[in-house]
Amino acid sequence: MNTRFVLHEEELPRQWYNVLADLDRPLDPPLDPRTEEPVPPEALRALFPRACVEQEVSMDRFVDIPEPVREVYRWWRPTPLLRAVALERALGTPARIYFKYEGGSPTGSHKANTAVAQAYYNKIEGTARLTTETGAGQWGSALAYACAAFGLRCTVYMVRASYEGKPYRRTLMRLFGAEVFPSPSERTNAGRAVLAADPRSPGSLGIAISEAIEDAVGGNGAKYALGSVLNHVLLHQTVIGLEAVRQMDLAGAWPDVVVGCVGGGSNFAGLALPFFGEARSGRRLLPRLLAVEPAACPSLTRGELRYDFGDTAKTTPLLKMHTLGADFVPPPIHAGGLRYHGMAPLVSRLVADGVVEPVAHDQVDVFESAMLFARAEGILPAPETAHAVHAAVKLARACAESGEAKVILIGFSGHGHFDMAAYEAALEKALPRVT
Ligand SMILES: Cc1ncc(COP(=O)(O)O)c(C=O)c1O
Questions:
Q1: Which of 31, 137, 254, 288 is most buried (most C-beta within 10 Å)?
Q2: Pocket around ligand 1: residues whose beta carbon is below 6 Å from it?
Q3: pTM for the complete prediction?
Q4: What is the structure's pLDDT at 161?
């Protein structure tokens, strides 16, 4: 039985898939908080390069991947699609479990897919430095790597809870040449305001975004890069799903369920949207699309769908999304990359339309499934990824009960080699439930 489905280097996609072209009605536009009028795309040029701003609103169904970006992708892409046969056996399930493994990128997660594209577009426009936020450190290290690849400087505001809990991610970013600051920091008005109210603030992605934006706007030749949420980021991530569609064909199977974890929504969307596109074109059946979030930060399952700020200092345009409120500071769970108060407007729309199904799980259960997966498959999921793994394990167990041989596809967004403190706590049964 084949368990590994690989594409050749030449089969690396030449275009990303833009789901905006396939929506029933346009997305609600970002609004200017002062006037509540739509923000003209040009206004985003202060923060982002032209190509990303154009991609934010493009209605082209496919967007060319620039050759220099494909060249860097080729270091680790196409990524493999693997069948988790040992996990299936361990669960005694008739379900067939596949996972699309993004842990083989230079920094260990899917984040490099958009980091490389964003660094490239900035490079050709003459940007000297990029600023960003990072939760778990995956996005920060991906951007630091991409900046090194294209010769840009990089400044990262790292959520303090992760800065202290994940020192080696910090080291990796610095090795790639980035400067890294704990957020909230004393370097920005946004950081100082949070520290004045709570000197022990663990930080949040919303706060770190405010700091990175403030730094970019005030910095000479600096621009800002976001690791999730926005349309252009999700677009870049569709390289995952475009490959996976072809690999499922190689496997001779089509998923009944596609499952991914959601922080801002980029890896889930990157995998799931091309499957949605295939269904839209009438070629295939639409799988169940399951978006898994932490019970500690349940923006899709408990948040409201409304206009809200993308950051805590309320400097961004208003985005129509599922949100827990821009002031919400989630408890410091181990899946730092899932601690975001909002959600990609695109994912929010598909949830509202009933296309994407959200579910929330507690970290204790999530880590149990992650350890089961690691023991069976020999691959350790990142705590974020572990949420998707847990949902898949639950589905496969249900199949064991019902006898159904469903095909489950997991978005395996990254490995957990920098998350040993979290796994140590899980082994010692010292992880708190945070619901
Ligand atoms: C490995 C991994 N998976 C998932 C996420 C969540 O982000 P997104 O929802 O944008 O994929 C992160 C964010 O840091 C991550 O590091």
A1: 137
A2: 109, 111, 135-136, 138-139, 228, 261-268, 337-338, 382, 384-385, 413-414
A3: 0.97
A4: 87
